[in-house]
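Quick check before the chapter quiz. The format below is the same one you will see on the exam, so make sure you can read both the input and the output lines.
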Amino acid sequence: MGFRAVWQHQPSRNYVSGLFLSSIGDGVQFIANSWLALQLTGSAAGVGWVLFFSSIPTVFLSPFMGVYVDRLNRKNIAVTMDIVRALIILMVPVLYWTHGLQPWHIYLMSFMVAFCDKVFQPATRAMVRDVIPKEQLLHTNSAASIAGQLGTGLGATVSGLLIAAVSAPAAMVLNSVSFLLSAVFLAQLQYHRSQAPVLAKATFKKDLLDGFSYIQNHKNIITVYIINAFLVMSLYTVNVLLVPFTRHQLHLGPEAAGYIDATFALGAVLGGVFIPKMVQQKGRGMVMSAGLITMAFSLLLFSQAGTLWMAMVGYFFIGLSFSVYSLFVTVAQEQVLPEFQGRVHATFNTMFGLLSLVIYLGMGHLSDVLSERYLFVFLGVLVGVASVWSRVTLVRKMRLETV
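Here is the expected output.
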């Protein structure tokens, strides 16, 4: 099955369309939030604090959210979270236009939207496993990745232009609208669970512990997520450093940050198109480890950028290498039973959340005392070392191409 089959399958089409629209909001919010934080605080640490508060729900709430995702109607959860996010985000423009906006408002909004995100993500991830045939998972995840990156790139570009022409809060209005449109598409999805929800007889504590036991008894899942963490770590770092890098190293404004972020999406889209073909030719383990190697070199290339065009080229390759994330997601989905999807995904969200807390605060403050270029070089070297280990683990031991 290919991308045409994905579009012809109604649940896949609605899922990908909804993700595209919500990703526009994500792209808008990233640039708008970062620029507002930098303006209100005058420090790159302000951007780090925004991302820090965005990570708190991941650390403390993800495992509990996973239990509810496995118990309740996943489609209804996703639609509700889209609507709630839209309403929360609208509060920032209202405060700004009434001259009451303070940095702590941005931090609180970031926390609340992130809470909704961490409910939305395991719900949609588990919902896909319910409604998409197993043989179509990779193409659906690749299509979703392409749609997500196109949406993020479009949102980032429009956000940068809106901030430069009007204001960051104006961009957030567009963000809110995109979440509402996403809710409309997801609400129309024909959804039937492949596994009946866990109901009254099972206690919340038992469900939670059963999820941990399932992960403990399936070591390959742990290995896949740990290696994936290096890709996620790279994304977290470029998120917190992009706006300060654009302002301090390139001496450019918000529209430039939007253009650069859009090239990440362009690279990820191109990678998403070719990932299924590369997997057929080279095998999963080889493609996954190659993604990490490419990420390492891309980070080093971006660190040396001196002009907007050089930065865009480096960021394009960072996006290209990140496209293998959809392959990690597919492997994890295939190895986890449908009734455990929410709990497993949420548990590893917690691990990634802890990682993000360290990165967001650490990189935000380090950016005030060290050049962002040095930080990108350090990350590139670290990911390079991880890529060597992943090649041994994935290609020689795990043999994921036979999964």
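If your answer matched, good. The chain has 15 helices and no strands.
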